[in-house]
């Protein structure tokens, strides 16, 4: 009797959840059927319950329904209450990817795993991937605006995958074809109008010539203002699918199934996935630039439709990788080890902030926004780090995208895939005195795009060849008014602001007046830079 009551309540709740999708008035190639979304459809569409054969119905047990609901809550990163609470109702009405999270209700081993990513298909067999924009929405100012956002999205993945993305002309063949469409738009997975499915994408080599393609729903609220959907965020997610990734239950991952707003920076799991899929195996033995159109690579599968959407192949291999938490000698709050200012350096890399202490690294999206799961060992963030590197004195990203790390009197180049360690790479080779044991900091100043090296009470400006200019060093106090000697670090943020750090304090440097701003220095551990330090007190 209890089970009957449970099912009656479930059906009534499901009916109250149904949402009608109106048919737009504009002309279409094929008029889409009116549709609705109910709870059982949601469970089946996203893999939480098995799909019955055509023209049949399946009777599910109370236990299977309860387990499905718990898994929905897990993939939505909300409390697993097993109840139809308000958080669950809100989750089920949130735009999301149409890619199944499970296959016929079968778990992929993610329970209680704090870190995981899923590879949904094979990756590209080429490391040079071409793409083209077939059309664009007139909700954006022009084609160039859309192309700029797409390039930034591809660059986001390129930074950590070693892949090179090249835009080609509209008449040229391309691995990834990008377009905007409405309802029935040329494949067998029509869009649903405004408000739910934002886009969908296909895994590499799936569905014949559609493999890798990305489709955006023209009817969504695209635009350039804060009130509009963020094209960059959706594009980064869809490109993850086009590169072979499935969904993640980690809310910090760009592959999280539900749209979260402006959030385009890769999470730690996304970076690990790129390393696993493209970096660790090196380039393919056969780097066939035209292989994307060959039938030998075709896989049959099921497309995903969503706001951040992907195409899933039900026959694809679902590989779950788990990273265990790093053991920091039993410290209860390893993230707070830097609160007193005891760290080697702060750097801006890939538009994010990194703090280095010993062989550990803290990663921030922006000042004060520590990425979940950090700190982590340096070797986990930058795989292949040379064993002789015991700490990072300074680091910076060059204009060509490579990262230079300084440790003691040597420096090392990291290109996102491998490290370069040459005997000649010492401080003397870039024009510093031979007896210089290390440097304090290095950065590219936003005021003039020049590179500066700091050590003690002196600084050097580097020329285009990466060596110190002839009339340097010069005294810090003569040019950087108010800046202390022997600084820990100096950086420039994306907004152009310049900050220096020393002994647990930070300074805001005015790039125009060349003075420290009034009210500085300020205590680092009690500021917006490290809010986790304040919260722990």
From TrEMBL:
<feature type="binding site">
    <location>
        <position position="217"/>
    </location>
    <ligand>
        <name>Ca(2+) 3</name>
    </ligand>
</feature>
<dbReference type="GO" id="GO:0031012">
    <property type="term" value="C:extracellular matrix"/>
</dbReference>
<feature type="binding site">
    <location>
        <position position="220"/>
    </location>
    <ligand>
        <name>Ca(2+) 1</name>
    </ligand>
</feature>
<keyword id="KW-0677">Repeat</keyword>
<dbReference type="Pfam" id="PF00413">
    <property type="entry name" value="Peptidase_M10"/>
</dbReference>
<dbReference type="InterPro" id="IPR021158">
    <property type="entry name" value="Pept_M10A_Zn_BS"/>
</dbReference>
<keyword id="KW-0862">Zinc</keyword>
<feature type="binding site">
    <location>
        <position position="192"/>
    </location>
    <ligand>
        <name>Ca(2+) 3</name>
    </ligand>
</feature>
<feature type="active site">
    <location>
        <position position="238"/>
    </location>
</feature>
<keyword id="KW-0865">Zymogen</keyword>
<feature type="domain" description="Peptidase metallopeptidase">
    <location>
        <begin position="120"/>
        <end position="280"/>
    </location>
</feature>
<dbReference type="GO" id="GO:0004222">
    <property type="term" value="F:metalloendopeptidase activity"/>
</dbReference>
<feature type="binding site">
    <location>
        <position position="488"/>
    </location>
    <ligand>
        <name>Ca(2+) 4</name>
    </ligand>
</feature>
<feature type="repeat" description="Hemopexin">
    <location>
        <begin position="484"/>
        <end position="531"/>
    </location>
</feature>
<keyword id="KW-0106">Calcium</keyword>
<feature type="binding site">
    <location>
        <position position="211"/>
    </location>
    <ligand>
        <name>Ca(2+) 2</name>
    </ligand>
</feature>
<feature type="binding site">
    <location>
        <position position="346"/>
    </location>
    <ligand>
        <name>Ca(2+) 5</name>
    </ligand>
</feature>
<dbReference type="GO" id="GO:0005615">
    <property type="term" value="C:extracellular space"/>
</dbReference>
<feature type="repeat" description="Hemopexin">
    <location>
        <begin position="436"/>
        <end position="483"/>
    </location>
</feature>
<feature type="repeat" description="Hemopexin">
    <location>
        <begin position="389"/>
        <end position="435"/>
    </location>
</feature>
<feature type="binding site">
    <location>
        <position position="237"/>
    </location>
    <ligand>
        <name>Zn(2+) 2</name>
    </ligand>
</feature>
<feature type="repeat" description="Hemopexin">
    <location>
        <begin position="336"/>
        <end position="385"/>
    </location>
</feature>
<keyword id="KW-0645">Protease</keyword>
<feature type="binding site">
    <location>
        <position position="395"/>
    </location>
    <ligand>
        <name>Ca(2+) 5</name>
    </ligand>
</feature>
<feature type="binding site">
    <location>
        <position position="247"/>
    </location>
    <ligand>
        <name>Zn(2+) 2</name>
    </ligand>
</feature>
<protein>
    <recommendedName>
        <fullName>Peptidase metallopeptidase domain-containing protein</fullName>
    </recommendedName>
</protein>
<dbReference type="GO" id="GO:0006508">
    <property type="term" value="P:proteolysis"/>
</dbReference>
<dbReference type="Pfam" id="PF00045">
    <property type="entry name" value="Hemopexin"/>
</dbReference>
<feature type="binding site">
    <location>
        <position position="255"/>
    </location>
    <ligand>
        <name>Zn(2+) 2</name>
    </ligand>
</feature>
<feature type="binding site">
    <location>
        <position position="187"/>
    </location>
    <ligand>
        <name>Zn(2+) 1</name>
    </ligand>
</feature>
<dbReference type="GO" id="GO:0030574">
    <property type="term" value="P:collagen catabolic process"/>
</dbReference>
<feature type="binding site">
    <location>
        <position position="220"/>
    </location>
    <ligand>
        <name>Ca(2+) 3</name>
    </ligand>
</feature>
<comment type="similarity">
    <text>Belongs to the peptidase M10A family.</text>
</comment>
<feature type="binding site">
    <location>
        <position position="200"/>
    </location>
    <ligand>
        <name>Zn(2+) 1</name>
    </ligand>
</feature>
<feature type="binding site">
    <location>
        <position position="193"/>
    </location>
    <ligand>
        <name>Ca(2+) 3</name>
    </ligand>
</feature>
<dbReference type="GO" id="GO:0030198">
    <property type="term" value="P:extracellular matrix organization"/>
</dbReference>
<dbReference type="InterPro" id="IPR021190">
    <property type="entry name" value="Pept_M10A"/>
</dbReference>
<feature type="binding site" description="in inhibited form">
    <location>
        <position position="97"/>
    </location>
    <ligand>
        <name>Zn(2+) 2</name>
    </ligand>
</feature>
<keyword id="KW-0479">Metal-binding</keyword>
<dbReference type="InterPro" id="IPR036375">
    <property type="entry name" value="Hemopexin-like_dom_sf"/>
</dbReference>
<dbReference type="GO" id="GO:0008270">
    <property type="term" value="F:zinc ion binding"/>
</dbReference>
<dbReference type="InterPro" id="IPR006026">
    <property type="entry name" value="Peptidase_Metallo"/>
</dbReference>
